[in-house]
Amino acid sequence: MKEPSLPRHQRPSQFDQFLFGACYYPEHWDRSWIEADASMMQKAHVNVVRMAEFAWTLMEPRRGKYDFSLFKEAVTTLEQRGIKSILCTPTATPPRWLTYDNPQWMRVNSDGVPFSHGTRQHCCTNNPEFRKESRRITKAMAEAFRDMPSVIGWQTDNEFYCHVDECYCDCCQDEFRKWLKIRYNSSIESLNEAWGTVFWSQQYDYFEQVEIPRKWLQPAPCNPSALLDYRRFLSDSITSFQREQVEILRARNPDWWITHNGIFYNIDYYKFAEDLDFLAVDVYPAFWGTRPQDFIGASRLNERCRQASGTYIVPEQCGGPGGQLKFLQPTPEPGRMRLWAYQSIAHGADGMLHFRWRTCRFGAEIHWHGIIDHDNVPRRRFEEFSQEGEELQRIGPQILGTTKRVEIGISFSYEQDHAQSVLDYSRPQPDTQRELALGELMRQKFAVGYVNEDDSYAGLSILIVPSAIVITEDRARKITDFVAEGGTLLVTATSGQRNTNNHAIEQTPPGLLREVLGITVEEFGNIDHRKMNLCGSTFSTPAQYYEIVECADATPVAHWRFEEFPDTEAAQGKVGLSCNSFQKGRAYYLGTFLSEENITPILEILCDAAGLSPLAKADPNVCVIERHAEDRKLTFVLNNYPEAKRVDELPAGQELLTETPCEGQIILPPFGVAIVRS
After folding, report:
1. Residues in contact with 270: Cβ distance below 8 Å, sequence separation at least 6, in sequence order
2. Are 467 and 433 contacting, i.e. CB atoms less than 8 angstroms apart?
């Protein structure tokens, strides 16, 4: 389903219809409800449901005694109403008969305490015996449903690492050592060198002496190179667990597509997604708040998925207020659920399933509300859901085949994030800077998105690289080529300082980026009570961290200025922002971190240099996002305000939802949506 010739983040799906539906749990209700549910779903224009991710016990009540009848009945009944099914491997919730007999399979926390049955994700995915059981139930399900044509695809497990990503059981310890042996070619000397174990007399004599690093249980800070390798291991090990299921499913029916729903931490999704047809992301925007400016939380999550996969689906989008344990999210106002759904679609989703069809009457998610309430009475959320279904049925064919337009790429990297996080020094992290840049550029209505550092930069005018502390020769060459071919580059503080083992390099920063940036970094430091500003010809902005930039080929753009006792400051009057004209392009270096104070003037400099124009003109928290194909552009306009907003300078065309002409201006109602085709 992928098109290798395109940058991955620009790959469209190959669906024959836009997927719309809900997560369905027939096991939570009497079987007699399936027919009525299917009928009601049909009226709401549902064309797909997702099922079975937590139903292992029902499908295998005793070892080897399988009963798939409930889900086969559901699949068949739904098919009769024109509704297809996505099935899930149920390995996030193994049965009690399995865990009772095998307590050694439980994950172990950093205090050495095993988890208990009664929740989910409590079994260790590195345990070889649990993996064997996971393969067995996956194979049994695949065999049972392989000839049911309305089963169109699969989701592996459910939300890997949602609740817990680290485990300290004996199996994880053994697997970590095996992983290290492979990485270091069975050479303990290579590991000692890579980890710098001569520091604090940490040298190992053989791999069996190595333990999983426990960052928070040390009497002093843990080895940062060991921690970085452990983060790599966590990602690789869950990718390996998933791959076993993917191989079984593909062998049983090659026509099935396969996905997984994220997005969480300690998974390098760019690599993880290589085994899948596309990635998926669960989006609950109320986690970030319901103020107009809070749209950025969900946009950031969608972008983390899109950069790893290209076009994707959303298996879980809020269907009502989410509540669990000690929290209950605000109830989405009328129109908000639909707005949030279109936000994900604008970022690139080609499938939209709401969680859940009906609110459960028992269990830990008794108040994680769905489309229909506990009493099974359809109300305003059902009406809004149905409106969404009708619209997507009508305009879905025009959305399919398009991908999000990205002129400004913000570099995303699992490696950079963790190389920084294991020695964070309380500095702003790359992800914090990414979100600031994404939010500001979206508020200014530019075509911006995340792009993985391993992906192609084709089509980008601007590349923003936030604090890429680890730079390899290949990475440096790729960035240099981008600028040489006419791109505009921004690199921020601490970039190019370390190698892949997280060791400080011998060369003066920015190391391998020195040529393209035309500078060296001569000194860096934090300040606390003193007041410091980065001052250019058009702006002055405060900062707390500085780097002294020495321009070799670059030109100074802004300098450091101290308000008090400037003669005592090493950075006073020194360069803090530079620009190097390099072949056909420009390379800027910012000797501090992107912050709320400096983000606006810095990005204005970039966009002016690249000659980019915004997609439209509107209030800051009205989002304007474009999806495009060779023959069309779709401009999504999303009003995050609880009041009407006007949008100007849109492309002329046809507004698809109302089927009316657009002459460049639209007035959106509160939480309103418009899609202009041009």
Report:
1. 8, 307, 308, 412, 414, 452, 454, 455
2. yes
306-310-314 Cα angle (round to 5): 60
What is the enclosing helix (H) or strand (E) of 143? helix 128-145
Length of the chain: 678
Tell me: the pLDDT tens digits for 461-512? Answer: 999 999 999 999 999 999 999 999 999 999 999 999 999 999 999 999 999 9
Cβ neighbors of 323 (< 8 A, separation 6 or more) are 329, 365, 366, 367, 368, 369
Degrees (nearest 5) of the Cα angle 105, 111, 117?
35
Contact 167, 176 (CB under 8 A): no
Cα dihedral 449, 455, 457, 459 in deg (nearest 10)? -70
Q: In the chain, what are the domain boundaries?
A: 170-228, 408-610, 622-677
Closest CA to 152 of 80, 85, 90: 85
Q: What are the Cα distances from residue 238, in Å, to 339, 626, 632?
A: 33, 34, 39
In angstroms, what CA-CA distances link 579 with 189, 279, 471?
43, 37, 20
pLDDT tens, position by position, 524-575 = 999 888 899 999 999 999 999 999 999 999 999 999 999 999 999 999 999 9
Cβ-proximal residues to 429 (8 Å cutoff; 6+ apart), any chain: 417, 420, 421, 467
Report pTM. Answer: 0.97
Q: For domain 408-610, which architecture applies? A: 3-Layer(aba) Sandwich (3.40)
The CATH number that domain 622-677 falls under is 2.60.40.1180
The three-state DSSP-derived secondary structure of 590-632 is ECCCCCCCCHHHHHHHHHHHHCCCCCCECCCCEEEEEEEECCE
Strand 349-355, strand 19-23: pairing: parallel
Residues of the chain where predicted confidence (pLDDT) is lower than 70: 1-4, 215-217
CA distance 3 to 671: 35
Q: What are phi and psi of 608, to 5 degrees?
A: -65, -45
Beta bridge partners of 449: 409
H-run or E-run covering 517: helix 514-517
Which tokens in the block code for residue 79? 């098919």
The CA distance from 31 to 454, in Å, is 48
The amino acid at 98: L
Cβ atoms of residues 353 and 314 within 8 Å: yes
Report how far Cα 640 is from the mean position of its chain's Cα atoms: 21
* Separation CA 638–CA 596 (nearest Å): 23
Q: Name 518's Cβ contacts closer than 8 Å, sequence gap at least 6.
A: 551, 552, 553, 554, 578, 580, 582, 587
